[in-house]
Protein: Membrane protein
Organism: Neptunitalea chrysea
Amino acid sequence: MREASFVKQNKEKWILFEKALHGNIKINPDDLATYYIQLTNDLSYAQTYYPESKTLAYLNSLTTEAHQKIYKNKTESRSKIKNFWLYEFPLFFGQHQKTLLYTFLFFFVFVLIGVISTLNDDSFIRLILGNHYVNMTIKNIEKGEPMAVYRSGSNIGAFLGITINNIKVGFYAFAMGAIFSVGTIFILLRNGIMLGSFVTFFYKYGLLEKTSTIWLHGTIEIWVIIIAGCAGLAMGNSFLFPKTYTRRVSFMKGAKDGLKIMISTLPFFIIAGFIEGFITRYGDFMPSFIAYTIIFLSLTLVVYYYIVYPIIINKKHAKVHRTEK
């Protein structure tokens, strides 16, 4: 992009930010933080493409002044964290919701593949889950304890082990996006087929209702793996479709965006691990309405934070921006 076009495209935003810093107009603190993030991104772009230009000098000066005013008091660190979770991330994630939709559709198709394959081939489940796990589960079913595997180990040990493993799987799904998004799609394929095969396996034994025990923790766990896949596709697609950026700059931006998405999943992985370590093991003895309430609340939490809330925040932001103009 030519420097003149870059300036023309962003000039109004910079002037608005400058006026807000000097107290000439009132602006919501959350919006100020958002503008600051955009400003630093513009500065990075100018440093790459317009070194020693007047535009770079102006952005350097404005960014320095903004940094001093926004971060002059370290007691704001807590509010910064709160701002990230409640405003900055939902506002940012609004631009990746389409990628999340594609990721979900990929995963859904892969689940269907697992379901159809397991329905039509009894040996398929062994190919996917392994003979040891299938034989162990069949023995548990014969003993009337199909979910006994979730009662093994201590609560804390299971919680820590499961949480760490899930985080590893999530970051692996994200990192594999570097292979032109194909790596992430492969991880989604593997996990989707496993899920479809697992649920169908219990269905064929007439125990589909028992899978509610799995969904106690699996509701969040599966959704967060899909979101990790979204992070991987955001990174991989940034290289495949750089738009007006060079592939290197676009990929760096995509990797940064993907990492931010992954950071947002950490609390959800911890919640899923806690449920699996402390609650799922009692699923067989739990009243159905309690189990389904936990599943419903888990689904509501994820859907609201990653789909509904970003839409609300972006609409609010757009409305405030139009009012300020």
Remarks:
- Residues 54 and 78 are 36 Å apart (CA to CA).
- The two ends are 26 Å apart (CA to CA).
- Residues 3-72 form one domain.
